[in-house]
Design a protein that fits this description.
- This protein is mostly helical and about 525 residues long.
- It has helices at about 10-20, 70-85, 90-105, 115-145, 150-160, 165-175, 180-200, 205-220, 225-235, 240-260, 265-270, 290-315, 320-330, 330-345, 355-390, 390-400, 405-420, 425-440, 445-455, 465-475, 480-510.
- The protein is globular.
Length: about 525
């Protein structure tokens, strides 16, 4: 099946995408394909920006690029940021904001609009992640301080043994990460990884890196995550077939990189400590820990809610109050809030711990998260400046005349946008608009085009990606170390993903499917 009929499905992930993107980059409604532009390679015009809550003119002047080489500006800004943070030891939050202001000025964003661009970037990023990360950190700390995280870690060690702890993390992460966003799954699983490190004495990256790589693979490659789901709707691809084909590519590629990367010499040379305040340092005796049933039930409770909402929404197309209720309960913030309430009771009064002790655990988690959230928010400001500065429009113009394989072009444009803008979601939405006119005449399967764009968007994660800072702060790495670890694994993951997509396209053509 090359081009299925236009999809009318609007999934949970698609609705989440519309809420989480900066307003200037929200995709159009995806019930129908956008009309083909006059030139076969150009995408539809950019949507208008969301108006600020403060009184301001109804229409903002069009941003004029301050240079004909915006990619050079991006490169220089990254180098300046590295200099500020490595040589001058400037705080990451301040360094990101300073560089963002500089790029905004160079790219011709009116000076009076720069504060709004920064605040919208911070607000959009923090608004999307603060509830998830904050509630998830509280749940993790409550489980850690009660011994529930150690109970699960001990069971994983009993089942897989210390030698196969990485396999345990990969299997767990892939199962949870199929339906959960990277940040949500990361926050849920990382306390278990920290506990395994403390109990076994293993290197933090030896245990935690396979988890992060597996989650990155699931989030970037597969629906119902927001980027792939939005692209599938744009290309009128079958979400089910995209997930089916994608699993055959994502699972082996993700598992290979997850198990190989911690064994590389430059990774093994790093030995970061667990960040203070994110996990309990106490080692519990067996009779002090809650039962395995309650520990696993609380850990999987948000997974069941979020996955159940996604599956229900994919399986039905009708709009009804029931589906709206399921979507509400299955949204990440609500699911984690309900999980926190459950954890407070299950690992508090139920086992003899006072509410004041549980409250102290929550407060400790919040204090540890403060700087992480600030840095992630500043990363969102930097990303928004790049988007508002016209970087993606420049890339569209540059790629207009390229004549290469549609699948390779789709991957390449997404990868370039990812390098320039940082946001994988913005990259896939923009790239899909650029390559959509090529789909009909390319002969490529729509599902393969979705996967090509999706795996291109995971490449080259670096300092303009808010997820980069989440990874850096939780694994207590320097900026240079995080680039060595995360930028390299995301790039190799993306390249191998492209190889898998090309091989799958060849196999489908061979089988005449």
């Amino acid at each position: 099946m090359r081009l299925p009929p236009p999809a009318t499905h609007r999934g949970v992930a698609s609705r989440h995408l519309a809420r989480s993107l900066p307003a200037a980059r929200r995709p159009p409604r995806l019930e129908a394909a956008p009309a083909a532009p006059s030139h076969p390679h150009l995408a539809s015009p950019r949507p208008s920006r969301r108006p600020s809550r403060r009184p301001r003119p109804a229409a903002r002047p069009t941003v004029q690029r301050g240079t004909d080489m915006p990619l050079v500006v991006v490169g220089i800004s990254v180098l300046v940021l590295l200099l500020l943070m490595t040589r001058l030891k400037l705080n990451g939050f301040a360094a990101l904001l300073l560089v963002a202001v500089g790029v905004a000025v160079v790219q011709g964003i009116p000076v009076k609009d720069i504060p709004d661009v920064l605040s919208e970037g911070i607000g959009g990023q923090i608004g999307d992640t603060m509830l998830t990360i904050g509630l998830g950190a509280m749940v993790g700390r409550v489980m850690g301080d009660s011994g529930a995280a150690q109970r699960i870690a001990d069971k994983l060690l009993d089942a897989f043994g210390p030698r196969w702890v990485q396999v345990a993390m990969v299997v767990t992460s892939m199962l949870i990460g199929v339906t959960m966003f990277y940040e949500v799954a990361f926050i849920i699983i990382v306390p278990i990884a920290f506990t395994l490190v403390r109990v076994t004495g293993a290197n933090l990256l030896w245990v935690g890196l396979p988890m992060s790589i597996a989650l990155s693979t699931m989030h970037s490659f597969l629906p119902p995550h927001p980027g792939p789901t939005a692209v599938a709707a744009t290309f009128h691809a079958s979400v089910g077939l995209t997930l089916f084909y994608g699993l055959f590519i994502a699972v082996p590629v993700g598992a290979l990189i997850a198990l190989l990367w911690p064994r590389l010499p430059f990774i093994k040379a790093m030995n970061p400590a667990i960040p203070q305040g994110l996990v309990s340092e106490r080692v519990f005796d067996d009779d002090e820990m809650p039962g395995l049933g309650w520990s696993v039930f609380v850990a999987l409770f948000p997974v069941v809610l979020i996955a159940g909402a996604a599956v229900t929404d994919m399986a039905t197309s009708d709009e009804s109050p029931f589906l709206h209720s399921v979507a509400f309960i299955g949204s990440a913030p609500i699911a984690l809030l309900l999980t926190l309430l459950l954890a407070i009771w299950a690992f508090g009064p139920r086992i003899g711990r006072s509410l004041s002790e549980v409250s102290a655990s929550c407060s400790s988690a919040v204090k540890a998260m403060a700087m992480i959230l600030l840095v992630i928010g500043a990363g969102g400001a930097f990303k928004n400046v790049l988007v508002e500065g016209g970087i993606s429009d420049y890339i569209k113009d540059v790629t207009d005349s390229w004549s290469i394989s549609a699948i390779v072009l789709a991957w390449l444009i997404a990868a370039i946008l990812r390098v320039a803008l940082g946001s994988a979601t913005v990259a896939v939405v923009t790239a899909s608009g650029v390559v959509l006119p090529l789909l009909a005449g390319s002969g490529a399967h729509a599902e393969m085009m979705v996967l090509a764009v999706s795996c291109g968007s995971v490449a080259f994660s670096h300092v303009n990606d808010p997820g980069f800072w989440l990874f850096k702060e939780y694994f207590n790495l320097s900026v240079i170390q995080a680039i060595k670890v995360r930028t390299t694994y995301t790039t190799v993951l993306s390249v191998l993903g492209l190889g898998g997509v090309l091989a799958a396209e060849w196999a489908l053509d061979l089988l005449s499917l």
